[in-house]
Every structure is written in C-alpha cells, then in structure tokens.
Design a protein that fits this description.
about 350 residues; alpha/beta; Rossmann fold; globular
Length: about 350
C-alpha cells in the first residue's frame, strides 16, 4: 500500500534544501521573494546552508547535499521539503541516502520537478511513499504567483482517501521574461494550450501513477535506484499510467529512451501515457517527438495524451507518484483525477 504524508497545513514548516543546483545571482532575489510569499501564505520556512551556494553546477558535494536533505526529512518540525529548482547532477547524492531509514521515518511531502524527478522517482520506488511532481520553490517567488502554483498547496493538504481533479489550463509560456532584483515577473503566458491525442479511441484510462523528467530518470536504469519492476508487480491489479516530460532531448533521444525503457520492462501492464510540452527540443530530419509517441503507442497499443500541462514550459499540473489516476477525455473533457488510495 502506498503511504501518504500527513496533510500540509498552514502554520507548518517547509524545508528547502538543494539536492541538485543552488541559487545564485539575480535568482537570490526570487528565492527571498519566495520565502516572503510562502510565509505570507501562512507557512514557516527553513533554508539549509547550501541553498545559496553553487560550484560546478551543484550546491555542494553529494554527501553534504544528502545530509542536508536527510536532516530536513528527520526533523519532526518539517512537514514538506521543496527544493529551489532542479539542475544536472542530483543522482550523485543517491548513494549517500539511507532509504531504509527514510522509509521508517514519518512520511512528509517532497515536491519539485526537472532534476528533482531523480529524487522523487527513486524515493517512491524504494520507500513506497508518495511524492509530488509539480512546482519548485522558486515558482513561489514571482511578484504574482500563478494559480497552478498556489493550487499545489491545496493538493498537499489532501488526506488518504481524498480525490482531486485538475483540468487543462488555458495558456502556457514559450519564453521566460527577464528577472531583475526589482522585478520578478510571473509566467509569460502567450501560447494557447492544446492537449493532443494518439489512439483517441480510448477516452478513459486509469492506473497507478509514476513518472517524471525522462532526461534524468532514464539514467537510473540498471542501478539499484530503479525499482520499476517491483512497483509494477505491486500494482499489477491497477495497471500503470506513466507521465513524462523532457527538457533537453531531441526526437531521436526520445525514441531511443522509450526503447530503452521498453527493453527494461517499464511498460509492462501500462494502461496509458501522459507527455508534457517539450523544451530545448529539435526534430531530427523528418522525425519528430510525435513520431516517437506514435511508434510507442502502436507498439504497446496504449493511449497517449501529449503537449499536456507538464514540464519546463509552465504552468504545469501536479502529479502524485503513487496516486491512483483516471484520465477522462470523453465528451470534450480534459480531466486528470487523482485519488490518494
């Protein structure tokens, strides 16, 4: 049975550590603004020492990053951990985490995306504790916080047995606006959201949710931090719904990664797949990421919804690793319903 952390409530303390990159330069203003905004919303904030440090693409050596995260997780006053943002090398700290001890500690929410997927994905697979893929701490740092970011606090306030529904958003951001110390703009929403479908003959599909940023979680294949086969067996009766987003892969990278995942059994008992808007992406000659998705859908005979509100072109929805999910695209609906069961 998936274990869910206690609901995050106003008055609780949120811990911020940097398991991947730290925060520097003008983004320190955004970090300070995020602290102020979170506190104004009624929460307390505790920042670890390495959050404001950065050298060679990381906040600190991997052992220190692991120690800071573990200290927050073991701190009874901390009710959730939200890293400032992602980065590149979170995987280096995984060998320094004692997952057996973490598994036996009172669960608390871990929230984030991008390279934070490395931690979320591994944590849920190795501890059977739910984690939340959604906004990072710096997403709370704009002068005006988007509703999708504020809504994650309502989601983390849910208890076991509760259900929440999210629908497709209206517009998304293609390009970031410049940040200065005096001006921290919100999302630059210029593009119309349009979810798209492969194999739309299947209008409703359900299963146990798992996924993240495919650029980083695919690197776990063949390591002890990838326990997908155990997760699939444990949830064999429910089936699996995967969600992925990509921020640096081109079309052939995406196709090759799907093939690698398939060869390692990741798509056994898969009932469907959700794929976010691609960022940092290029077609390769006449082959696109849509071709990769079509090839996968035809091979597995599963429905795929793509260009959904997920990933590096905000705003994005929140996905709970471990939750039971129902995707309904019938009767002009675009609904993702998650139940903490």
């Amino acid at each position: 049975m998936i274990r869910y952390p206690a609901p995050l409530e106003k008055g609780d303390m949120i811990g911020v550590s940097a398991p991947s990159s730290g925060v520097q330069d003008v983004f320190l203003s955004k970090l300070d603004n995020a602290i102020k905004n979170i506190e104004a919303l009624g929460y307390k904030v505790k920042i670890t020492d390495s959050v404001r440090k950065q050298k060679k693409l990381v906040s600190a050596p991997p052992k220190i990053r692991a120690e800071e995260f573990t200290n927050l997780y073991n701190n009874k006053d901390i009710k959730a951990i939200i890293p400032p943002w992602g980065g590149e090398f979170l995987m280096e700290m995984l060998p320094y985490l004692n997952f057996d001890n973490l598994k036996n500690t009172e669960p608390k929410w871990i929230l984030g995306f991008s390279d934070i997927s490395t931690l979320l994905f591994t944590f849920t697979l190795k501890t059977n504790i739910a984690t939340a893929h959604g906004p990072n701490f710096l997403d709370f740092g704009s002068n005006s916080i988007h509703d999708s970011v504020l809504n994650v606090l309502n989601i983390l306030n849910k208890s076991r047995g509760e259900t929440f529904k999210q629908t497709s958003l209206e517009k998304y951001q293609e390009e970031w606006l410049d940040i200065t110390e005096d001006n921290i703009p919100s999302y630059n929403l210029t593009e119309e959201v349009r979810w798209k479908y492969i194999n739309d003959k299947i209008n409703i599909f359900r299963g146990r949710l798992i996924g993240g940023n495919m650029d980083v979680i695919c690197k776990l294949i063949g390591t002890e931090y990838e326990k997908v086969s155990d997760y699939l067996k444990y949830h064999d009766e429910d089936g699996i719904v995967w969600y992925f987003e990509s921020c640096e892969m081109d079309a052939t990278d995406i196709h090759r990664t799907f093939w690698q995942m398939k060869m390692n059994g990741w798509f056994k008992n898969c009932n469907g797949l959700l794929f976010g808007r691609v960022a940092g992406y290029n077609d390769v000659q006449d082959y696109s990421y849509v071709d990769a998705l079509k090839d996968l859908s035809n091979d597995l005979n599963i429905p795929i919804i793509y260009d959904i509100d997920l990933g590096h072109k905000p705003p994005q929805l929140t996905f709970i690793n471990g939750a039971y999910v129902e995707i309904d695209i019938s009767d002009n609906k675009e609904e993702i319903i998650q139940t903490l069961k």
